Amino acid sequence: LPEQPSNIEDTLHRSLALLDTTDDEITIPLLAAMYLAPMCEILQLDFSLFLVGKSGSLKSSLAALFLCHYGDFPDKTALPASWESTDNALERRLSTLKDVPCVIDDYAPGSDAYAQRKQAQRAARILRSVGNRSARSRLRSDLSERPEYIPRGLLISTGEDLPPGQSILARTLTLPVEKKLIDMAALTEAQETAETLPHALAAYIDW
């Protein structure tokens, strides 16, 4: 984040302009998440957001745009993590990214039954870990304890479907995304000026 935010009023207006990119039911929680994340440790946040929609609905692009409050995320390929990563890698990432949003992209189990089961198990484990603010306890071969990687940021997921399990979804705020509801002109304009968003967040933290 910039040490000395510039044009604070203008950058805050550009941040609020992201609310115009699609329905309020999606943009308000996403924008709120950007400004809530710095207080993860203080508030012990025990929920996550899940953008769900068909392939091509621009859910990952929306996530990348809002994440630009924290740096340069030009498109969905720059998102911090993927549901294709291993369980251990995702646990470590969610612990490392403290007091910031972490987007795990592309929950899409596919048609293979084994792949569906593995990804569903991974999502259940990660989402439950976030909801409980806890981590798996593991031992080394000499029975000494390995470090625990407790989630310390705000998780935002994207996917074509939701993970199964009522207890998992109870910990998740689901945001259904439809391309037809996205204002493409507003989205393009916001993407073109996204480099100003870190100034808005820096001013907020300074305040």
Structure overview:
- The chain is an alpha/beta fold.
- The chain contains 9 helices and 5 strands.
- Strands 2-3-4-1-5 form a 5-stranded parallel sheet, with helices on both faces.
- Helix 5 links the parallel strand 2 and strand 3.
Output the keywords.
207 residues; alpha/beta; five-stranded parallel sheet; 5 strands; 43% helix
Let me know the largest β-sheet: 5 strands, parallel
Average pLDDT score: 91
Strand percent estimate:
5-15%
Query: Order of strands across the biggest sheet?
Result: 2-3-4-1-5
Order of helices and strands: HHHEHEHEHEHEHH
SSE-based structural type: alpha/beta
Summarize the structure.
The chain has 207 residues and is of the alpha/beta class.
Secondary structure elements and pairings:
Elements: H1 8-17, H2 24-36, H3 40-43, E1 48-52, H4 59-67, E2 81-82, H5 87-96, E3 101-107, H6 113-132, E4 154-159, H7 166-169, E5 172-176, H8 184-192, H9 197-206
Parallel strand pairs: 1-4, 1-5, 2-3, 3-4
